[in-house]
Every structure is written in structure tokens, then in C-alpha cells.
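Re-run with default settings, no changes from the original entry. Doing this only to confirm the output is reproducible before filing.
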Amino acid sequence: MKNSFIISLLFIVLYSSCNSKTNEVQIEPIPVDPIPNPIDNSYTIAIKDFKMRDPFVFVDEVSKKYYIPASSGDNQSFTMYESKDLIKWKSLGKAFIASQTFWGKADFWAPDMFEYKGKFYLIATFSAPGYYRGCSILVSDTPTGPYTPLTNKPVTPANWGCLDGTLVIDNNQPYLMYCREWLEVGDGQMYIQKLSDDLSKMVGEPQLLFSASSASWVGPITHNGITGFVTDAPFIYKTPENKLIMIWSSFAKSNGKYCIGLARSTSGLITGPWVQDPKPLNNDDGGHAMLFKSLDGKTKISYHSPNSYPNYVTIYDLDIYQDNLTILNQ
């Protein structure tokens, strides 16, 4: 690849408004910069130049590589990125391209990536006219794809606006943890619900874990005349002391910045009760985070920062000592 080739990554910011008659979330895209589309789909990006929202790092112990699935910014596909060292990232091209019959027509937000029973899954957020925003699950035989919809409809409740679903396995039982849209309920909510063994549908009833305002550090935001509290991006992690924690994102009361909060399960169960730490983990206007173990055994955190365009992939070492989390080098 020639040095003169300028790499840019398409990012699209989507704003939403609430339809007072149906309470459905409507989507309005904002024009953005174009992205180069190399013929070989193999251009590389240095981590310092890697522009993306909601980066979820999947560690593949078989290939000894890292993968990040990302919105392609075209409301019809996800692109897969690959790295051997978390520093240089290579585009592998489109891992999912929605067919004309796929229910999702907009958003294509925040794909989380998991391996489960020998297959690979992306859980992402979509919306479309006539639907509430919701989460769908895509499946592939390989980490790089191609991915196809497990079912052609949201797996989250059909009459709720939901986003940021993530997979949790507890005692061999799969669960979906997800957020209920703050624009719909005012005080954004965090839910967990059992999934069928093949991940194709929910079973049982959704269980409310907490609302955004239960964290003392969270402040309200206003959008399109609607004021409320945001819940974003839950991620479950078990500490070396075998304590169950959750990181999630919202906006700080103190300065309005997007940031990462920490909740702790006092029972050690995914159903909680969940108690919120009084302060967020970061102050760099970044969030939508996840934790992972690198191939050399280090605990790391990945998120995007800042929350305003351009957003960059941010990966730091994370120190966990006596259940206290400290982001290093931020």
C-alpha cells in the first residue's frame, strides 16, 4: 500500500427522535466523510489513527489474533478488522451484508462478538420503520464471517426500544443483557433475560437490574426536547477475587462527559442486586467499554474516545486490585 494513500474510517452519527403517536424511535442520519474502499480490502490502520465507535475486541486463542467487528457506516453491513498485536489493524472487508429482506434498515450499531458452542456470534443494534429499535443476533462458522441472521427479527422485546445487547453465560445458561431506550422510558434501564440454548429467542421474562439514575455520578441529558438518563453498553466480568462486576456507560453529572461506570453484584449473581460505584472509571469523554485478556495475559479495557467525532479506538491496560479497577496510561 502506498504511503500516499490516506486511510480514513467511515463513521456515522445517528440521532433519534420519538414519534409521539407510536412512541417508536425514528432515525436521522448526518452526512459524514467518505471512506476509501481498497480493492484488496487489506489496508492497515495504526491504533492511533483507528477511528471507530464501540470497539469490542474478540480474542481468538486458535489463530492468536484479535478481531473487532464494526459498523461500515452504510446502514447495511459490518466490517471485520484483525490484528496480531493490538497496534496495527487490517481490514478484512465486509463480515455481514444485510439482504434486502433483513428487518434492520438503520443504526447497525455496536456489534459485540462471542464464541459459543463452536460458532461465532455478533449481537448488534438495528432499527427500521415500523419496528422499535432492537437487538439481533448474527451467526458464522468462522470469526471472520460471513455472518447471517440467526432469525430475521429482533430478539429483544418487540414492543420495547432496546439497544446494546451482550451475551452472558452463567452456569451454562445463556442470557442477553441489554438496555431499554432512555428516550422511551426517561430513566434508561438495564435488563437481563434468558436466551434459548440456540440463542434464537428469549425465554422467560425480562428482569430489571437497575435504572441509570441509581448511579449517583450519572446526570441527565437533553435531546430533541426530551430530558433523561442514559444506560449504554453493559459488559459483565468476573474479577480475580471471583467477584462479579459490570461496566456500563452514561453521562457524568459533574461535567457532562461520556464515561464508564462500575456496578457490583452484592450476591455474586448476574441478577444482582447491583450496587453502583460513586465515581466513573475515566475522564476522557470515552465509553462503551469492554474488558478482555490479551494473548500475553494482560487485562485490558477497550472503548471509544472522545464521544464526539472523530472517535478513536482506545485500548489501555487495566489494573484490578482487591476488586478496584484502575485504567493505566489514560
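The first strand starts at residue 14 and ends at 18. The chain has one domain: 14-327.
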